[in-house]
Specification:
Blueprint: E1 5-9, H1 12-22, H2 29-34, E2 49-52, E3 57-59, E4 64-68, E5 71-75, E6 79-85, H3 87-93, E7 95-97, E8 102-105, E9 118-123, E10 131-133, E11 138-146
Antiparallel strand pairs: 1-5, 2-11, 3-10, 4-9, 6-8, 6-11, 7-9
Length: 168
């Protein structure tokens, strides 16, 4: 297997700012940050790296939560990290990513937001099922994929931020 990436925590200052922006009035940011677990594979045959909830969440049908994971990833050029809901949660509860698939490019790591990975998920259950995620539960998985570019590619833009930053 090629070793092409490394997960890290974002700085405490970045996490605190993003956490308080997402969950205003919550005073548990130190405890949440200290408990962040880096993604890892469950078995030697797993393709996906499990991301863990930094805090407990309950999602009733139709509810959405944006989770600041506290994680960033350094990825070699020519690779991308694709994020999906854990398959069991998708199958049992129709847990969905709001952007369908999260795409983490290699240059996201050096952006002004430290490459902080957010996951916005929705309980899309049409069976009235509530999702209960405990702190430290795996809720999504990331898979590294190699990609190519066209022979006449001339991209020269620079990233400096998160969602939509390359289209500004």
């Amino acid at each position: 297997m090629k070793r092409i990436a490394k997960f890290e925590k974002v700085s405490f200052e970045k996490f605190k700012s993003d956490w308080e922006d997402t969950f205003p009035g919550k005073n548990d940011v130190n405890e949440v940050y200290d408990g962040i677990k880096l993604p890892k594979r469950a078995t030697t045959g797993s393709a996906g790296y499990d991301f863990y909830t930094p805090k407990a969440f309950t999602l009733k049908p139709g509810e959405t939560v944006k989770i600041p994971t506290g994680i960033r990833v350094r990825i070699d050029d020519g690779w991308v990290l694709k994020l999906y809901p854990r398959s069991g949660l998708g199958f049992k509860f129709r847990l969905q990513f709001n952007n369908t698939v999260g795409i983490i490019d290699s240059d996201y790591y050096n952006s002004s937001n430290e490459g902080h990975i957010f996951c916005k998920i929705t309980n899309d259950s049409n069976e009235s099922k509530t999702i209960e995620l405990n702190k430290g539960d795996g809720f999504c998985q990331g898979i590294f994929v190699e990609y190519g570019i066209t022979v006449d590619d001339d991209a020269d833009g620079k990233r400096d931020g998160g969602f939509g930053s390359t289209g500004k």
